[in-house]
Amino acid sequence: IAAAAAAWARGTAALPEPWQPQKPVLPVEGRRNVLITSALPYVNNVPHLGNIIGCVLSADTFARYCRLRNWNTLYVCGTDEYGTATETKAVEEGLTPQEICDKYNAIHADIYRWFDISFDYFGRTTTPHQTMIAQDIFQRLLARGFLLQDTVEQLRCEGCQRFLADRFVEGICPFCRYEEARGDQCDKCGKLINAVELKRPQCKLCRGVPLVRPTQHLFLDLPKASALEERLESWLEQSWSTGDWTANARYITRSWIRDGLKPRCITRDLKWGTPVPLDGFRDKVFYVWFDAPIGYLSITANYTDQWERWWKNPQQ
C-alpha cells in the first residue's frame, strides 16, 4: 500500500514510457512475453452476457493489465466452427454449415467489437491453416505409432445413407424413459448416453429408424505411450505445486491418471470438419475434441506466419 501511495504521489510523469509492440506482435528477447487466449466461443449461437463474462471479459481484463505493465502481450481468440452442433444448426436454419459459420462468426465479431474487447486478432477455425496444422499433428502421431484402428458400433440411417452423429439421433432415454433424449445426453435426467442405448431411436433428419452397424475409427493410443504417462505425471506434480489449479481440475485429472489412460477416438462420420488424410478414412473428419484445441495455433498462424515463435518457444 505504501509503495502504491508513493507511486501515485509521483504522478504519471514518473511512469516508464508505454511499450509499443511491433505489428504483428512477436516475442521479444529480454522482455516478458505473454500470450493470452480466450476459450473459443462456439459458432452456432448469439453470445450473451454469460458467455462474455465467463471467458472473454476476464481474458480481456488480464490483457489490458499486461499491457499496462508494459509486457509484450498478444491476445487472440476466434470462433470454434466444426462439429455436429454446426451441422444441426445448419439443418434448423436451412443453410449450409459454411453459411452458418459465416453468419455467426460475423455476429460474434460485431458483439465483441461493441464491447471493445481488446483482441489483437479474432479469427476462426475453418481455415486452410487449421487443416494444415491439424493434419500435420495427425501425421506425426501416425508416424510415431500413437494411433490405432478399431471397430465401433454406431447407428446408421439407410434413408440418409450415413452414420449418424450423436446429435442426429433422438429416442427414449434408457434410464428415465424421457421420450426426446439425444444420442449423447438426456436433457431430463442429465445422464450421458451412448446413442446405441436409446430405445426406439429416430434419425432427426428423415425420421427413419437407424440400425446398429459397425464402422472403423482411429484412436489416439494413449495406453501404448507408457513413457508419455510417466512424463505427464511428472509434469502434473510440478504444475500442481506451482500453478493455480482448481480443486475440481485436480480431482478430474487425478482420476484419469489413477484409472490409467484409455484410447480416445479422434474421428467421426461427419461431413463438416477437418478431413482425415488417410486412405480408408477419407470420408471421415477429425472429432472436434481433437481438432478444436488446434484452433488456438491456427488462429495465431492466421495472424502471423511466425506463429511458432509464440507456440514453440519455451525459452521466452
TrEMBL record:
Domain Methionyl/Leucyl tRNA synthetase: 34-314
GO cellular component: aminoacyl-tRNA synthetase multienzyme complex; cytosol
A molecular-function term among this protein's GO annotations: methionine-tRNA ligase activity
Record GO biological process: methionyl-tRNA aminoacylation
UniProt entry keywords in alphabetical sequence: Aminoacyl-tRNA synthetase, ATP-binding, Ligase, Nucleotide-binding, Protein biosynthesis
Superkingdom as given in the UniProt entry: Eukaryota
Pfam families named among the record's database cross-references: tRNA-synt_1g
Catalytic activity: tRNA(Met) + L-methionine + ATP = L-methionyl-tRNA(Met) + AMP + diphosphate
PANTHER family associated with the record: METHIONINE--TRNA LIGASE (PTHR45765), METHIONINE--TRNA LIGASE, CYTOPLASMIC (PTHR45765:SF1)
Similarity field: Belongs to the class-I aminoacyl-tRNA synthetase family.
Protein's name according to its UniProt entry: Methionyl-tRNA synthetase
Gene: Mars
